[in-house]
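Running co-folding for FE2/S2 (inorganic) cluster.
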Amino acid sequence: MTVILSLKAKQSIDAWLLKYPIDQKQSCVIHALKVLQDENGGWLTEGAIEAVAAYLAMPKIAVYEVATFYSMFELQPIGKHKISVCTNIACLLNNGDKIVQHLKKRLNIEWGETTQDGCFTLKEVECLAACDGAPAMQIGQIYYENLTPERIDDILATLEPKEIKDGK
Amino acid sequence: MPFIEINGKKIEAEAGSMIIEVADCSNIQIPRFCYHKKLSIAASCRMCLVEVERAPKPLPACATPVTEGMKVWTRSPKALLAQKAVMEFLLINHPLDCPICDQGGECELQDLSMGYGQDASRYTEGKRVVKDKNIGSLIATDLTRCIQCTRCVRFGTEVAGIRELGATGRGECLEIGTFIEQSVSSELSGNMIDLCPVGALTSKPYRFTARGWELKQTPSIAPHDCVGSHIYVHTRRNQVMRVVPRENESINEAWVSDRDRFSYEALYHSDRLTQPKIKLKGEWQTVSWQIALEYIANRLSQIGSQHGANAIGALLSPNATLEEGYLLQKWMRGLGSHSIDHRLRQSDFRHQEGAPLFPGLGLPINELEQQSLVLLVGSDIRKEQPIIGLKLRKMALAGGKALVVNPVDVPFNFDIALKSIVCQGNLVLGLAKIAKALLNQSEIHFAKEAAWLASIEPEAVDIQMANLLRASGKKMIVMGALAASHPAFSQIKALTQLISELSGAKVGILTDGSNSAGAWLSGCIPHRLPGGKSVQGEAGFTIAEMFEKALKAYVLVNVEPHLDCIEGAKARRALEQAEFVVAINTFESPSLQKAVDVWLPLAPFSETSGTLVNTEGQWQSFVAVANPFEESRPGWKILRVLGNVCDIPDFDYETCEDVLAALRLEIGTPELTVIKPFCVDPIEYLANTDEIIRIAPIPLYASDGLVRRAPALQQTKDAGFRGLQINRTLATRLNLVGEAVRVQCEDCVMQLPLLIDEQMPDNTAMIFSGLEDTVSLGGPYSVLKLENI
Ligand code: SF4
Ligand code: FES
Ligand code: FES
């Protein structure tokens, strides 16, 4: 079922539409998807894809292609914090695999899974363009670089729900 | 034009063309997967890498334009190394399952891997697997075999004009699929099967029934629409296995519609007649041809002497061949009756005397795409003549303007510049308003016409259309099926004629079936002999009159009147009251058993030779691709023998070619006065009352007996919605709430599922015709009463 675009979403998309020629509405597709994803707790429903297609006069499949191409779009519900870990060459050369192992163990989940409390989702991504700070990961909008297992513990501690932190 | 050298051979090349095009023209083979001459260049597979002088790396031949003096090597060590490397990569994720793949033996990947692949794979890691998707009844998917050439995706975007397949995911996870699992709905979707270079997309009805090397290929002509697409029929041991397109740049290019491709499935349907049958005292008896034909001759002569030859009428399918038509009319006229008609879906025959030699487009199909404007009148072109739809799409893509006057707001796969959607099927009013707008702009005063259209008020869109019509260069008005079947067709013709005179646009019409033009030419109309010569004395009855007058005997040639005729219910009633009905049909229609007295098994297009005349007036002959099934016989033979047993003189044709030659001779150089269909009759259909008028198009896959019996086509959406479609406004006005409604038309009442559809204009209801379920509901443009159940 097509999602009905909120006024805020429309305004945001419209503002971006102004930046492109009027017959090139599809230029705005990434932004539109992002707006809808943010409004829906971090993932896109089929209805959201249909809504973007209708709003930008694109074939649905074309919007779907974009949504499946970029790893920043989620098509399934995800946890509160999405941890995107780079597993490309620069990171791997800098012990990236240890970071991955540590994360998986600590969160007790595999790639693409979400912790039981719905707090974290772990995602393998390609180069984050942060090779100079490898190994790197991204949580939400924020980049974390030069990671070590200890640093990860610190970072996660700030994000975990309070009860866990208190050891309850 | 630049000169280039390929493999040491000097070739003059078209400036701006790509290396691969030049090589193709000179018969130099370059391997390729993603390149296709009818699609845009993707340059994604890299199979076409060639060595080019002074280029540091091999270049893709499909995406490298030629330059003066360029030197290319397609099989140098450097080129071969690159090609082999690409091949190896392509095969990494390919399942290499040729023995169980339907494409085996006719697979581009298989062929090229013979040339460029290694005998053993060096790849030992796991291969990717892609889940197959169900994309409908026509195309089977085995997406693990896909090599991501995106030909299918580009076909949808560029040619078919509906983007249904896409490439989702990325990198190794790239997959071909639809947005959520759904059927592909393009009326040209089958072409993706041909385009797919591997066995990822194969024909669902055909797959696993034969291997390419077992098939015999015979050229033929598609028997369903007035385009006359060129096809190949593939047979194995005298049985038709499939149909594929035969390239013909001037008509169907490299494509064929799904209707032409998949209708073959019906050829061996269980309804197929295998032997002549006659009904004696209510019992069906299988008889020999001899007995059946003599029985027919006797009964017809009896009826002729008792009631006069005028009591006999003949109906011919517009798909019947020229030869069949010629012999049918010769036989009927030999019996003394001029009542022969093929205009099964026409209801207004006024002004037929002034008609041109045959109705048609009036210009080569290929020139449609060069028009700067086309005004479509009463046509859902994609679902009537898919290939013509393609041409109009090309025109629109090239900047031509498409205008539409339609009774339903059907979707097009090209941009429509202006549309006028008329309520209650009132095409006459829609056209009158455009004509009036043009009349108002005209410098010359047309007194008669002005008086005729005095009460008409053009609206803004009509004036815009008039402006565009006047301003455009090459322009055409094209009438479609909804215009031709309109009860005021003569007025529609008169108005299009007037618009044509006021704007300089040409006028064409797209007719039903594959040989309407031929039927006119061969005299299968009640008022004309072959070649357009007028009937001496009184003309015969038109099809409408034949049903109205309830004749004593009817002869049907490949017609199932209740589904093929516009007034199906009336047709069936007329047949049922008749004393004697002969059906020379391919199929035995269960619901005609009561009406018919003799069934003669007619060979379909695949089992007869014959000629079809397409909408541009081209005579296209074809031969039988298989022997007649069981006891069926080609129509021309049946009709010839019927002529013989009825002692009609000059009926000794040895071959189908003899018949054609005789017809050619009789047509000679036609002399014909075409009378402009200018109507003095007052404009009809002006009342804009609250009445609900039924629009009754024929679904794409209900157009003839063959298509109606093709199982895979019948599973698609285009087999037609079996219910009622109206817009929300009307549903609200009538307070229709349920999922079904009670529909009443005259004295017939029926319950039909209701679909709210905003394509429908006010006070207009769409119920498809040509479907068994709704035959008794009467014809189009009738007044309906709708109620809650
Ligand atoms: S399905 Fe066939 S045509 Fe489509 S991308 Fe794959 S290989 Fe190419
Ligand atoms: S390789 Fe990890 S950020 Fe570039
Ligand atoms: S054919 Fe040239 S890259 Fe595919």
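Result summary
Residues B 146-152, 176, 195-198, 200-201 surround iron/sulfur cluster (ligand 1) (CB under 6 Å).
The radius of gyration of chain B is 28 Å.
Job closed.
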